[in-house]
Prior knowledge:
Elements: H1 2-8, E1 10-12, E2 18-20, H2 34-41, H3 49-58, H4 63-80, H5 83-86, H6 100-120, E3 128-131, H7 133-143, H8 153-170, E4 179-185, E5 190-197, H9 202-208, H10 216-221
Amino acid sequence: xLLGILDKATLTLxxxxxxxxxxxxxxxxxxxxxAEMGSILRPxxxxxxxxxxxxxxxxxxxxxxxxKIARAGVEAARRKFTPEFMNRIDKVVxxxxxxxxxxxxxxxxxxxxxxxxxxxxxxxxxxxxxxTEAAKDYLLRExxxxxxxxxxxxxxxxxxxxxxxxxxxxxxxxxxxxxxxVDFNPALGCLAFYKDAEDVPADAMANLTDPALPDQAxxxxxxxxxxxxRAAKASSGRR
Length: 239
């Protein structure tokens, strides 16, 4: 069936109806070659082992290593699939492993999603939070690794950031208009939460959000969210 779709861009159903795929983009993904790519990035022998791992961690793979990874992926696909199938594929793309720069971009996107959820919440008045570099490094250590990339990052954010924030909201320690700073406490081995400001005006709160947040920050600055209730006066510090 798939060969017919890729070749003639049509599919005949059981009732003789024909489905047109001429304006369809078909993407297929696979983890073929993952073991071979992993052995290139994490060689067990050789003097260059630590250097390759260091470059991978910083996202600075040299062109030779990148070419080896690409060839390993393509060759694994050719061993698995028939030539007839491979010849019908217009483009084969081998994704490079994520380095620190890519992982930090993913972390920023995930944190923006959490901030959007807070700003869009209909059950609580919005507040803003920010993470120190130490807190970001902690989340990256907990949610990423060389083998699986950022697959567990969202769970790490939920466990270490979202759930504690939810508890602070439920107990009234975080309220609408608060500005929360999140830092890493090395003594406790977890994130610590500090209230830097209360009753932050809507326009000032918009300035505290990540610039990558779409339209929501502008929405707040225009007063779309409405007036923020005054938070109870409490001394700033760890909550």
